[in-house]
Fold this sequence. Notes:
Layout: H1 2-25, H2 31-43, H3 45-55, H4 62-75, H5 90-103, E1 108-115, H6 119-131, E2 136-141, H7 148-162, E3 166-172, H8 177-180, H9 183-191, E4 194-198, H10 206-209, E5 221-224, E6 228-232, E7 250-251, E8 254-258, H11 260-277, H12 282-287, E9 297-304, H13 312-322, E10 327-331, H14 339-350, E11 354-360, H15 366-374, H16 376-381, E12 385-389, E13 393-394, E14 398-401, E15 405-409, H17 415-420, E16 423-429, H18 431-446, E17 448-450, H19 453-457, H20 461-473
Parallel strand pairs: 2-3, 3-4, 7-13, 10-11, 11-12
Antiparallel strand pairs: 1-8, 1-9, 2-5, 5-6, 6-8, 9-16, 10-14, 12-17, 14-15, 15-16
Helix pairs in contact: 1-2, 1-3, 2-3, 4-11, 5-13, 6-7, 7-9, 13-14, 15-20
Amino acid sequence: xxDAKVAFGVVLLAVHIAVILRAVLLEGREPxxxxxxxxxxxxxxxxxxxxxxxxxxxxxxKGYRRRATRAYEQLLPYAPRSTLPIGERSxxxxxxxxxxxxxxxxxxxxxxxxxxxxxxxxxxxxxxxxDAARCSVHLSFYIWxxxxxxxxxxxxxxxxxxxxxxxxxxxxxIGSRALVRSSxxxxxxxxxxxxxxxxxxxxxxxxxxxxxTDLRNHRKIVxxxxxxxxxxxxxxxxxxxxxxRHFAPWVDILIRYEGLVxxxxxxxxxxxWTAETGEDLRPALAKNExxxxxxxFPAIAVGTGPLSPRSMMTEIFVAVLAAAxxxxxxxxxxxxxxxxLIGAIVAASRRGVDLRIIFPRRNDSRIxxxxxxxxxPILAQAGVxxxxxxxxxxxxxxxxxxxxxxxxxxxxxxxxxxxxxFENNVLFDSxxxxxxxxxxxRSWFANSTEIDHGGIAARWLPxxxxxxxxxxxxxxx
Length: 477
């Protein structure tokens, strides 16, 4: 019996040492993330080992990776080609070129857009576009609830499917698990819509599905007839957001685009659809030629995730911040930046950019909320103006630079969005659209409290200790 216990202990020790070596030797990992995992593994041997095996790497099966890569490569010829010169202003050009490298297609010219006034109006706009659809309705949401707004969209899908419109619906298997199990989901299927619960995990066992349990499809994509697309932070739900009503209202932003960028968004949707369902959407894409509008602005839709080159989302944020000359305004609910991103924010502020960030005062993630505040001293020392939104949870993810260049989409400035989740964003160069997004940002400023830099500097020693520890372990969240 003693020998068996000793042997078991030796096996556990061997596993623990092997995991430590794996964490140290894994190529491509940022040194700060390597240090955070090493600290956890050494400090909490048993728990740390289990956590690393579950969440230490953004692992995804070779089979899924091959299917997704092949689907994306087959769709690339359907991306609109543009001869738009983007090098006239080098900093802006570099931001677009970074997105081109991530997406493998060129900036799309001739786009136009409008910002939804609020979340309910955004859903009403989507429903109207679905009701007017003639060929196809492609929807992808991380969270889709069976509340008023969620039901309104589902009913519009049913109406479209019954009149012969090809409706393809993607809902994240975890974020929308209640909908996937509901009669509303079954009703869409009965009406003729094609349904996909994305990244299913049987009984929570990721190794059976071939990917980490917490790798999620966080995208919010709406494409109607291949010519209209929506991109932003809004899920298919009411602002009251009943599962987390304590933090309501959830304040989001959604932009409606028309033009070649709609085709790019559809390719992002199609790549996941094909990888998960096996259906080849190229014949459907061939029927809907994208439209370019004279006098429209340049934009590019880009999808990122665990299949992208490491740190791709970070590089996009950094490139956009590098373009700032006078001003930059950021809103993000979840802030746990990696070193390059926090460095880009600090550098922009130090070179004289009027840089402002709005965070929600109350965060539905206590850990990430605490990590966000732990970065306040670093931001304040660089001269960044910090605001906390008072009226609900500001969930919008926006970055507007110099009143012209904007990045709006699903990606937060935390490790989940930077490394793990499938995200979608649109980068645009338009004074009019940036101005409309800026109006929303100014309304959020009006309901925010600016954090006093002096109070941050006067933190007590215990608070400084906690903040520094949180920034050290930020890579784990």
